[in-house]
């Protein structure tokens, strides 16, 4: 690692002040991506601002028909939460499939979506459920939050404090995972609320995105068979040692069908 200054923030205001005063500073949540990056000397922040001492950033609560999850809530907490299982069981299922026990017990929902790894699971849940990302400055709709590979709409000194998920009528998430990392080679989150159907795809492109052709088909008929004949274009999709762009395009339809089945 390179040398850096370390501080443990006592409040969101303290963390925001420290972050806004140094463009090269990094916020530390679970550290599941940041720490390995530092060890490999792929990042050289001037300072790390640890959010783990801010108790207000963790927790799960119901707010009317919404489920509000604090940014520092661990994946394992989401996976076993009775409230999550009752309101959005697909989200608990998603959290349960992230990484391994070590990752699930350290990684946080806020850290995951702020990092916006192209193969991360939570971005699909946030976009698929039309969630709202709450920060210390504003509220950001899911459609406006993810802006590109490892990029979001977060501004200088802006910190995610919670994510608010509206309760869907039906939702399901399925992924074809890398057997080693358990990252999604392709993951698809499907959610239906009234006449609105959203299909969010992770792992296949430069970041999470909505599959509009699948949404249109499922709006007409919310059945697994509705997506069978839909061909997803491979143009612009990821191609690497794990899967070609063409195979990922095929997997999007397959995982979407399985996600609809999981909706029950």
Largest beta sheet, briefly? 5 strands, antiparallel
Oligomer: single chain
SSE ordering: EHEHEEEHHHHHHEEHEEEEEEEHH
What is the strand tally?
A: 14
State the distance separating the first and last CA atoms: 48 Å
Assigned CATH superfamily of the domain at 170-263? CO dehydrogenase flavoprotein, C-terminal domain
Query: Which CATH top level class of the domain at 170-263 fits?
Result: Alpha Beta
Q: Please count the helical segments.
A: 11
**Average pLDDT score:** 96
* Major beta sheet, strand line-up: 4-5-10-6-7
Note poorly predicted spans.
none
Task: State the secondary-structure class.
Answer: alpha+beta
- Beta-strand level of the residues, as a percent range? 25-35%
**Helix-residue proportion:** 25-40%
**What is the CATH fold-level name of the domain at 170-263?**
Enolase-like, domain 1
CATH architecture of the domain at 170-263: 2-Layer Sandwich
Shape: globular
Task: Please describe what this structure looks like.
The chain is built from 11 helices and 14 strands. It is globular and about 55 Å long. The protein is an alpha+beta fold and 264 residues long. Strand 2 (26-28), helix 2 and strand 3 form a beta-alpha-beta unit. The strands form 4 sheets. Strands 4-5-10-6-7 form a 5-stranded antiparallel beta sheet. Strands 11-12-13-14 form a 4-stranded antiparallel beta sheet, sandwiched between helices. It has a 3-stranded parallel beta sheet with strand order 1-3-2, with helices on one face. Among the domains are: 1-53, Uridine Diphospho-n-acetylenolpyruvylglucosamine Reductase, domain 2 (2-Layer Sandwich); 170-263, 2-Layer Sandwich (Enolase-like, domain 1). 33% of the residues lie in helices and 25% in strands. The relative contact order is 0.12.
């Amino acid at each position: 690692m390179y040398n850096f200054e370390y501080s443990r923030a006592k409040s969101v205001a303290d963390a925001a002040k420290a972050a806004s005063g140094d463009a090269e500073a990094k916020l530390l949540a679970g550290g599941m991506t940041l720490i390995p990056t530092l060890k490999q000397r792929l990042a050289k922040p001037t300072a790390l601002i640890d959010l783990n001492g801010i108790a207000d950033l963790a927790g799960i609560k119901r707010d009317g028909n919404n489920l509000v999850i604090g940014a520092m809530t661990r994946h394992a907490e989401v996976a076993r939460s009775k409230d999550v299982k009752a309101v959005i069981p697909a989200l608990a299922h998603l959290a349960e499939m992230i990484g391994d026990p070590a990752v699930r017990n350290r990684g946080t929902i806020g850290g995951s979506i702020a990092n916006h790894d192209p193969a991360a699971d939570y971005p699909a849940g946030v976009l698929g459920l039309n969630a709202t990302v709450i920060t210390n400055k504003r509220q950001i709709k899911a459609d406006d939050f993810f802006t590109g590979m490892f990029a979001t709409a977060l501004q200088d000194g802006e910190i995610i404090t919670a994510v608010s998920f509206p309760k869907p009528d039906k939702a399901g998430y399925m992924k074809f995972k890398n057997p080693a990392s358990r990252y999604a080679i392709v993951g698809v989150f499907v959610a239906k609320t009234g006449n609105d159907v959203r299909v969010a795809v992770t792992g296949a492109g430069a970041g999470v995105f909505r599959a509009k052709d699948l949404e249109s088909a499922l709006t007409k008929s919310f059945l697994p068979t509705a997506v069978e004949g839909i061909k997803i274009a491979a143009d612009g999709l990821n191609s690497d040692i794990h899967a070609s762009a063409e195979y990922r395009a095929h997997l999007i339809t397959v995982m979407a069908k399985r996600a609809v089945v999981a909706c029950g």
